[in-house]
Fold this sequence. Notes:
The protein is an alpha+beta fold. The chain has two domains: about 5-35 and about 115-290, Up-down Bundle (Multidrug efflux transporter AcrB transmembrane fold); about 40-110, Alpha-Beta Plaits. The protein has helices at about 5-30, 35, 50-60, 85-100, 115-140, 145-170, 175-200, 210-245, 250-290, and strands at about 30, 40-45, 70, 75-80, 105-110, 170-175. It is elongated. The mean pLDDT is about 85.
Amino acid sequence: MEIIGKRxxxxxxxxxxxxxxxxxxxxxxxxxxxxxxGGTLMExxxxxxVTTGQIREVLAGFDxxxxxxxxxxxxxxILIRTVNLRQDEITEVQSAIKDxxxxxxxxRTEMVGPAIGSELKSKAYWALLIAAIAIVLYISYRFEFKxxxxxxxxxxxxxxxxxxxxxxxxxxxxxPFIAALLTVVGYSxxxxxxxxxxxxxxxxxxxxxxxxxxNNKAVLDTLPRSINTSMTTLVSILAILIFGGATIKPFMLAxxxxxxxxxxxxIFIASPVLVEIDAWKKRxxxxxxx
Length: 290
């Protein structure tokens, strides 16, 4: 099976997916949750099933039906995410829901100001940046700098696909999404390092085989491990995504997309990029010595 030799095909596939995602980001952006934009969150539980449409009818009386995101949390719960409300307005909404559904019980109310949302954005950027720097330093120390660059490009590939996918489907982006991104980064780099470690073990045979052939052999040797690990993880994620509540859905969806992308990038992006970097360095050295 030839993976490295067909690397341009894998690059084109990834480029098309990323371009679609970036196009969506430019056209419609991300559906930022109240963690980032500021707003009010209210969660209720009932003794019978209440639909999101019924809750929207109540919110319409306050002109909030089109300004709110209403989600089911399990069979008997409702989560309302809306614009910033004063305490008296929250009380009025609570009373209106209680009047229509006597069993309604408010589980929590959270208010996030724009200043806090801005601080969370800044911390999210710093978290991803620090993670990237730490990965570059670790891989450069354990392997070589070119391995770190290849791994970083694979991680950028995964992050862009997850962000672009969330923009396309319009799923809410909040603090759990950032946690999921960091989890995906850790999972993906672990898979990539396994392949890189295999390359390092076989590099002593380089006088017999080309660097591209060594990479292809390393990818094929670790392919069953990569697929089996990913499938086991994906089964658990799908189970939680299907049977879990609405609150955990964005986190699990980001993990699902990220692990699929991370498995793909570890096999079809990281090592092929490493081969391209090695070929570029050889061409540069040959020009310098010419």
